[in-house]
NADP-dependent oxidoreductase domain-containing protein
Amino acid sequence: MACTKFLTLNNGEKMPVIGIGTWQASDEEIETAIDVALSAGYRHIDTAPVYGNEKAIGRVLKRWLDAGKVKREDLYIVTKLPPIANRPHEVEPTIKQSLADLQLDYVDMYLVHTPFTLFINPDGSFQFDDEGRIKVDKSTDHAAVWAEMEKLVESGLAKSIGVSNFSKEQVARLLKNCKIRPANNQIEHHVYLQQRDLVDFCKAENIAITAYSPLGSKGIAKFNAAAGVERDLPDLMDIPEVKQIAEAHKKTPAQVLLRWIIDTGVVAIPKSTNEARLKQNLDVFDFQLSAEEVAKLCALDKNIRICDFSFFRGVEQHPEFTFKNQFTN
Ligand code: A2P
């Protein structure tokens, strides 16, 4: 049941349309999950230094590669330039650290993780002001960072480069100043936050969209609570229309949510550390949504952003922050 469907990027590279998301998984959980995922046929793995699990993922990849169970060229590994290193001089050393941790010579896709930049202390902890707000580095220069990202393609450290969490305006600005066009914009995208304008713009510019939190990222609740953010989150798998379409196809609500993303030409990276759910999330190619069902799901958009970065209290002070809602200040 391997993922044999790909999206061809603007540079000719092929990205598997389903990948495994790895945010909020402990080392132990992720080692098992990646092992299960590779056995189940996943080849696209999405990670980032801020998830804190690149070393654990690297250990599993090395075992699979050394044993000859998978070829490097069949893997699709995505990682990201973190917000604490979103500065031109930090691009190359940061990808090199990720490559060392992942035990790889190159990544398939390297993304600028966020349009904003944060300050850290020498010990790696975030800097806070007197009111407990995270300190933002307002000197962020996307064009200058991008010029360094382009060098990674030239030096072979990344096959493709892209952005994440960039707005339409931020992508448009980057397009005016680039030699290599971004191949990908990874954004929150699901039935309740479709960001149609941004998705359509990127598609028209031949920039592939990857949907993070495709299932509604229930796990973010724990993360929010730890940061003192109180909010109820919607359960996408409990939406009546989603459940009804799932029943009609004898599939689960999660499978319907994922199939809708793929059918609208977007890549999805559902996160799971559970064997049955990992397999389920890849088992989405044996049914087809009707045009009517796709339209029904498109009509569910409510502009509910789940990952609003409110867990970084104060981040909204950054000039490139575009996620303001009732939960941010
Ligand atoms: P778990 O890791 O225990 O499976 P997202 O990808 O939108 O961030 O969502 C991930 C969340 O959804 C995790 O809490 C994950 O929990 C859960 N999840 C992943 N796949 C499924 C599925 N097929 N059915 C129900 N819940 C799922």
User: Anything to note?
Assistant: The longest helix spans residues 27-40.
